[in-house]
């Protein structure tokens, strides 16, 4: 997991060959004015979703304590305040249901090991080893989730 501000995103271009293109797209947008919806950035290699939804309680979010096998998430907070629960996948032992290859998601019946906060202009990179429960907070949260194919 990597947590930082968009101002520092250049530091992470070397982590994955598609990160430079993904961050260039993010930084070229007027995020506050972007409409909710799905955006194709580079075929199915980089896709984004922008959405505005009511925040969840930690208990609600932890019901879908998730991780992905085929994609890395770059989650950018646009407005609101958000907390995300996190735990290393290697520490998770209780799988909840089966892996869904269509949605590239696995769920765990676990509790996060820690929670961290995000402010607008920050992003988190979540790798397949990062089990996470996002959207925890109060009020509405607007964010962009960019899926980068591994």
TrEMBL record:
<dbReference type="InterPro" id="IPR004375">
    <property type="entry name" value="NanQ/TabA/YiaL"/>
</dbReference>
<dbReference type="InterPro" id="IPR037012">
    <property type="entry name" value="NanQ/TabA/YiaL_sf"/>
</dbReference>
<dbReference type="Pfam" id="PF04074">
    <property type="entry name" value="DUF386"/>
</dbReference>
<protein>
    <submittedName>
        <fullName>DUF386 domain-containing protein</fullName>
    </submittedName>
</protein>
């Amino acid at each position: 997991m990597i947590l930082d501000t968009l101002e520092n995103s250049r530091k992470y271009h070397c982590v994955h060959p598609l990160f430079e293109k993904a961050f260039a797209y993010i930084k070229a947008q007027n995020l506050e004015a972007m409409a909710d919806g799905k955006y194709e950035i580079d075929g199915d290699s980089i896709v984004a979703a922008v959405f505005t939804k009511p925040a969840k309680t930690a208990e609600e979010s932890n019901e879908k304590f998730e991780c992905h096998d085929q994609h890395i998430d770059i989650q950018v907070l646009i407005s609101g305040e958000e907390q995300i629960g996190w735990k290393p996948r290697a520490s998770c032992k209780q799988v909840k249901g089966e892996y869904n290859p269509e949605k590239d998601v696995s769920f765990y019946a676990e509790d996060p090991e820690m929670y961290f906060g995000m402010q607008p202009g920050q992003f988190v990179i979540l790798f397949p080893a990062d089990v996470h429960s996002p959207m925890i907070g109060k009020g509405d949260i607007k964010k962009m989730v960019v899926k980068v194919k591994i």
